[in-house]
Amino acid sequence: MLSNADLRDLRAYHRALGDVTRMRVVQLLATAGDRTVTDLKVHLGVSQPLLSWHLLRLRRVGIVSMTRSGREVRCALDRTRFAELHERGFRMLMNPSGATT
Questions:
Q1: N or C end of the chain: which has fewer CB within 10 A?
Q2: Whole-angstrom distance, CA of residue 48 vs CA of residue 46
Q3: Burial environment of residue 37 by CB neighbours within 10 A (0 to 12, 13 to 18, 19 or more)
Q4: Sign (positive/negative) of CA torsion 42, 44, 50, 54?
Q5: CATH code where residue 63 lies
């Protein structure tokens, strides 16, 4: 059975992906690799404050990491964490009894 902490993680993961802009950020980082916040802003056509808010939601879940180099901030998709959360969600949906496999 999934613990309450696991369920909270999965809820946060699905909520983070529950927005079109955040899904576009994840897709862009997955296909194009690490990008600067400025690159993401230009490519997605959103304001910097709005993008920062979306990135915060993705960082809280742990699927996007950010590193600063001077004034530049680079974003990267944590593929391992993304795959882990996706797999846990899939197992939960495919095992209605709640027992882990």
A1: C
A2: 7
A3: middle
A4: negative
A5: 1.10.10.10
Count CA atoms closer than 13 A to 26's CA, side-chain side.
24
Q: Model pTM?
A: 0.84
In angstroms, how far is CA 55 from the centroid of its own chain?
Answer: 8
Tally of CB atoms within 10 A around 85: 22
Identify the residue whose tokens are 């309450």: 4
Whats the size of the chain, residue-wise? 101
Between strands 72-77 and 64-69, the pairing is antiparallel
pLDDT at 92 over 90: no
Q: Classify strands 35-36 and 64-69 as parallel, antiparallel or unpaired.
A: unpaired
pLDDT-wise least confident of 34-48, 56-70, 79-93? 79-93
The answer as to whether 99 is a domain residue is: no
Which residues does 96 contact at the CB level (< 8 Å), separation at least 6?
Answer: none
Whether the Cβ atoms of residue 22 and residue 40 lie closer than 8 Å to each other: no
